[in-house]
Amino acid sequence: MMNRLSANAGRVLAPLLLGALALAGAAEAQVAPGAEQLRAYSGLHQAAARGDALRIKALAAGGANLDARDPMGRTPLHVATFEHQREAITALAGAGADLDLLENDRYDAVTIAAVADDVPTLALLLSLGARPGQTTSRYDGTALIAAAHLGHDEVVRRLIAAGAPLDHVNNLHWTATIEAIVLGDGGPRHQRTLAALVDAGADLSLADRSGLTPLQLARSRNYPEMVEKLAAAGAK
Hints:
By secondary structure, the chain is mainly alpha-helical. The chain contains 14 helices and no strands. α3 packs antiparallel against α4 (53-61) and α5 (76-82) runs parallel beside α7 (109-115). The longest helix has 28 residues, at 2-29. It is elongated and about 60 Å long.
């Protein structure tokens, strides 16, 4: 009996412990340029950080490398995205910058905007042709998984509408649906995030590494609204 209880407890606690580890990692993984680095930038990186579209166009016309890297592997587009400089993003894209490059922490501009809950910048990037479903981050995730984790419900809806893969499984063996539950707080934004994924047709049978389904995970965390949504959709 004790062995069975221990095994059951382990099945419930394992995803919670993994969640704590992932939260700690996620807080460190995406690194925006700091004030000192912003001051040290020159050329296109400086223009991107300042939102100086005219200078971007002039530098591009003069042959500047649109995809140049800073020491963290950030291109001017990454910097403009971190700094919410949408005119700079438009100018860089118009000049031919690659919208899908990954920086050293393996984030693309779409995932940077998604993590920042920056819907206008995300919408712009997608409208310019940035890919919504690249594999990114140390967790081999996607922008959709990152946004679901954080409860950025409008970002999640935008990414779904753009064709982001609903059922990508990261290297923690979690989907966006699972992350909305195990890394969420069960509150309104995570509820809306889960609803968007369910309504879009996410596969609710995909389980975590311990074999727990989204419905079982929501029950284990005592998230009644999530349980109700999942059960109504036929989740087991």
